[in-house]
């Protein structure tokens, strides 16, 4: 077993964990924004009636598959 951590070591480890969590959350937010932007761009390329109809991500993917097959 490793020796128990001192208070200072625990504090440092907790701070590093919080910093890591914050950095991870920021990276994840950027990833999700890029993902959503890509779906929005794909959505603009798909013909639907009405043209401004709101579609879920799965609907966008399914419509893209059909549209590509049609081409």
TrEMBL record:
Residues 1-20 are annotated as: Disordered. Residues 10-20 have a biased composition (Basic residues). Keywords: Developmental protein, Differentiation, DNA-binding, Nucleus, Transcription, Transcription regulation. InterPro entries: bHLH_dom, HLH_DNA-bd_sf, TAL-like. Transmembrane segments: none annotated. It comes from Nyctibius grandis. The keyword Nucleus applies. One of its GO terms (biological process) is nervous system development. Residues 19-71 form the BHLH domain. One of its GO terms (molecular function) is DNA-binding transcription factor activity, RNA polymerase II-specific. This is HEN1 protein.
């Amino acid at each position: 077993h490793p020796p128990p951590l001192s208070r200072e070591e625990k504090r440092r480890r907790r701070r590093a964990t919080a910093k890591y969590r914050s950095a991870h959350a920021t990276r994840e937010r950027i990833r999700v924004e890029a993902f959503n932007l890509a779906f929005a761009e794909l959505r603009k390329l798909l013909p639907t009636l009405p043209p401004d109809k709101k579609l879920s991500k799965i609907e966008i993917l399914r419509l893209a598959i059909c549209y590509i097959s049609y081409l």
